[in-house]
Amino acid sequence: MPIFGTIPSSIGQLNALQELDLARCWTLQKLPPSIGQLNALQELNLSQCSNLKELPSSIGQLKALQKFHLCECSNLKELPSSIGQLNALNELDLSRCSNLKELPSSIGQLNALQKLDLSRCSNLNELPSSIGQLNALQKLDLSKCSNLKQLPSSIDQLNALQDFDLWECSNLKGLPSSIGQLNALQKLILSDFSNLKELPSSIGQLTTLQQLDLSWCSNLKELPSSIGQLNALQDLDLWECSNLKELPSSIGQLNALQKLVLSDCSNLKKLPSSIGQLNALQELNLSWCSNLKELPSSIGQLNALQDLYLWECSNLKELPSSIGQLNALQKLVLSDCSNLKELPSSIGQLTTLQQLDLSWCSNLKELPSSIGELNALQNLHLWDCSNLKELPSSIGQLNALQELNLSWCSNLKELPSSIGQLNALQYLYLCECSNLKELPSSIGQLNALQKLVLSDCSNLKELPSSIGQLTTLQQLDLSWCSNLKELPSSIGQLNALQNLHLWECSNLKELPSSIGQLNALQELNLSWCSNLKELPSSIGQLNALQNLYLCKCSNLKELPSSIGQLNALQKLVLSDCSNLKELPSSIGQLNALQKLVLSDCSNLKELPSSISQLNALQELNLSWCSNLKKLPSSIGQMAIVQKLVLKDCSNLKKLSSSIGQLNALQELNLSWCSNLKELPSSIGQLNALQKLDLSGCSNLKKLPSSIGQLNALQKF
Q1: What would you report as the CA-atom Rg of the chain, rounded to the nearest whole angstrom?
Q2: CA 462 from chain center: how many Å?
Q3: What domains can be seen in the chain, in order of their start residue?
Q4: Model pTM greater than 0.85?
Q5: What is the pLDDT of residue 6?
Q6: CA distance 310 to 292
Q7: Sign of the CA dihedral running 345, 349, 353, 354
Q8: By C-alpha distance, which of 82, 81, 45, 97 is closest to 66?
Q9: Cα(344)–Cα(336) distance, rounded to whole angstroms?
Q10: CB atoms within 10 A of CB 27
Q11: How many Cβ atoms are within 10 Å of 597's Cβ, its own excluded?
Q12: Each residue of 357-406: pLDDT tens digit?
């Protein structure tokens, strides 16, 4: 819509007009009185007309108007009383009208109105008593009306009201006792109602209420016993009601309740035993209830419960044995229950349990042998259970287990041999198990394993030869295994392996020649393997390899000539290989190579002329190659290179004139090339060059006149 400042009076002659959209006409200050002549108009949108100060009284003549949008008309201070004549109006949006202080009493005449949005009307002080006459009103949104101090008693006459939102009405002191007469109410949002200290007992009369949101009502100390009369209630949210100390026993009468959220009720010390009567309850969230010391034994009666969250219940020391009676439970989250020392043996009776999260249970020393009876368990998280020393042999009976996370279990010394019986296991995480010295040979029996993470297992010295039997393994991460000295030759049998990470295996001196048999390998990361002296010639057989990282391999002196056989290689990173003196001429055979990084290869003196054969190369980084004196004259043959970085090549004295042939070059960085004395005149031929950095080139005395031919240059 164009941004109109004025509307011509002739607009009233548009007799067939049904929809008029003037949204975001920020300069519009008023409407012509003739607007009232639009007899067919059904929708009028004036949203974000921030300079609109008033509406003409003729607005009430729009007898066909059904939708009226005034959202974010921030200068609108009042509505004309004629608005009550809009007999067909079913939706009125006044949200974010921040200067609107009151509504006309005629608002009650809107007999067809179904939706009234007053959210974020921050200057609205009160509602007219006539609001109760809106017999068709189904949704009333008063959220963030921060100056609204009370609701009129007539609010109880809204017989059709289904959805009532009072979120963050911070000055509203309470609810009228008549609230219970809202016979059609299905949803009541009272979240962040900071002045709400209690609910009227009449709340129990809301027999159609399905959702009650009291989250962040920080001053609410108790619930009325009448809450148990809410027969249709499905969702009760009490998140962060930090002053709530207990629940009434009548809570157990909520026969339709499916979701009960008590997260962060930090003063809640116990649950009533009647909680076990909630036959329809599917989700119970007690996370961050830091004063909760125990669960009632009646919790085992929750036959429909699927999800139980007890995350960071830091005072919870044990679970009742009745927990095993939760026949429908699928998810049990006990992460960060720092005082939990053991699980009851009855845990094994949870035959429908799919996820068990015990992460950060720092006092948990062992698991009961009954854990092996969890036939449906798919995910077991024991992340950072720092006191866990061993797993029961029964762990191997978990036939459905797909993910086992034991990362940061710093006291775990070994895995039971039964681990090999986990036929469905796809992901095994053992990151930073610093006391783990070896893996059982049975690990090779994990026929479904796709990902094995052993990063930072600093005491792991070797892998069992059976590792080669993991025919489905796609990712193997051994990064920071500082005591790992060698890989078994059987590693070459991992036919599905796509990613092998050996980052900072500082004691690894060589790779087995069998590495070349990894036909599916796409990424090999050997960065920071400071004792690695050479790569096996078989490396050239890795036909699927796309990324090879060799950063900081400070003892690597050369690359095998077979490197040129890596037909799929797209990225080769050799930065900070301080002992690398030259590249093999076969490097030019890397037909798919797009990025070559040689930064900080301080002993590299020259590049082979074959570098020009890298037809797919887009980026060449030679930063900080302090011994590099020149580039080969063939450099100009690199037809699609877009970025050439020579930053701080302090011995580079000149560039080959062939550099002007780099027709695709967009960025050339020569900063801090302190010995560079001149640029070749051919530099002006770089028609695509957008960025040229010559900062810190202290010996560069002049630029060639051809520099003016760089028509695409944007940054110099």
Answers
A1: 36
A2: 36
A3: 1-172 (3.80.10.10), 557-716 (3.80.10.10)
A4: yes
A5: 84
A6: 10
A7: positive
A8: 45
A9: 18
A10: 12
A11: 21
A12: 999 999 999 999 999 999 999 999 999 999 999 999 999 999 999 999 99
